[in-house]
Design brief:
The structure is a single chain. This protein has 302 residues and is an alpha+beta fold. It is built from twelve helices and ten strands. The strands form three sheets. Strands 1-2-3-4-9 form a five-stranded mixed beta sheet. A three-stranded antiparallel beta sheet has the order 5-6-7. Strands 8-10 form a two-stranded antiparallel sheet. About 2% of the residues have low confidence.
């Protein structure tokens, strides 16, 4: 993919949307070396979780999202390999981890509780200090309520009982987080590079959230089912204007939301592909192609 443009590479990741993945397809890099018994346990667990008869719809959708992410992570690892960034594999008490280490940032991969794999990205300085030479250092993914991303919890020297990766990154930057939260500018708790994190109080943290006008969002869904895209456009514009005014620098920005397009952000940070404007252009394109409700709700600032 080295000869492809940034947008075209992102489109390759996008093509994985909507596919019906088989639960017996495993990531070769992360699962290689496991015993037959371990692999069988993972397969049985995945099969159980993907059974519609045994899962509520919300959990099934979460599992499908995790399977999509697994395929996208596999694609990302292969792209990084092609650029000479080989994953460093480590066995830990939280499962097998893989680190793709670049000059400034690190792409980390681990196994979710449901047997799929997922990702994070963080500053190289954190890797050098806590992970590079400590075989006991590890991290795991923790589910977030009403969200498709995961918190990343680290177990490293000085924090053996665990600390959230986003907290660790800002603490290492000298930020005093006592009594405060951390806001992910990217709206994705798995993207933990320091320049995408900021100290926030509860109110500020909530401001950087999608669809604060939740009732209006539901009306839009109904409008779309009825084929009427214009009924509540004016209401949306007024709602978004209020959100932007009250939120200030913490106001939600759909063009800076990488909850679904994390791979574009990782390509930019790991391989210097695309510019910040390219990232916004891609997010806009993704919204227009895959998320009509978001397009209408935030049309005034897209």
């Amino acid at each position: 993919m080295s000869s492809m443009s940034f947008m075209d590479v992102c489109k390759e990741f996008e093509k994985l949307l909507g596919k019906d993945w088989q639960v017996d397809e495993l990531s070769q890099d992360l699962y290689s070396g496991l015993t037959a018994e371990q692999i069988q346990r993972l397969l049985e667990y995945k099969s159980l979780l993907s059974s519609e008869g045994r899962l509520k719809e919300g959990k099934l959708e979460r599992f499908k999202t995790d399977m999509l992410t697994e395929k996208q992570v596999d694609m990302m690892i292969n792209i990084l390999k092609d650029k000479g960034i080989e994953p460093v594999i480590r066995e830990t008490n939280k499962g097998r981890l893989a680190f793709c280490v670049d000059d400034e940032v690190v792409f980390g991969v681990g196994i979710l509780p449901n047997g799929s794999i997922s990702y994070t990205i963080f500053d190289r300085s954190i890797y050098d200090k806590y992970f590079a030479d400590d075989e006991n250092a590890t991290f795991c993914f923790v589910s977030r309520t009403n969200s498709n991303d995961y918190k990343v919890r680290c177990f490293v020297e000085g924090y053996r009982d665990g600390i959230e990766l986003h907290q660790l990154v800002l603490i290492e930057k000298g930020v005093n987080l006592i009594g405060s939260n951390v806001d992910h500018k990217s709206c994705n708790a798995q993207l933990n590079i320091s320049d995408m994190l900021r100290k926030a109080n509860n109110s500020q943290n909530k401001r950087n959230s999608k669809f604060l006008g939740y009732g209006l969002k539901n009306k839009l869904k109904k409008d779309l089912k009825e084929g009427d895209y214009n009924r509540h456009k004016g209401d949306c514009a007024r709602q978004v204007e209020e959100e932007q005014r009250e939120g200030g620098e913490f106001a939600y920005d759909p063009l800076n939301d990488f909850s679904n397009t994390w791979y574009a952000f990782v390509l930019h940070k790991m391989l210097n592909r695309g510019t910040e404007e390219d990232l916004k252009d891609y997010n806009r394109d993704f919204i227009f192609n895959h998320d009509k409700v978001t397009q209408i709700y935030y049309e005034s600032i897209l």
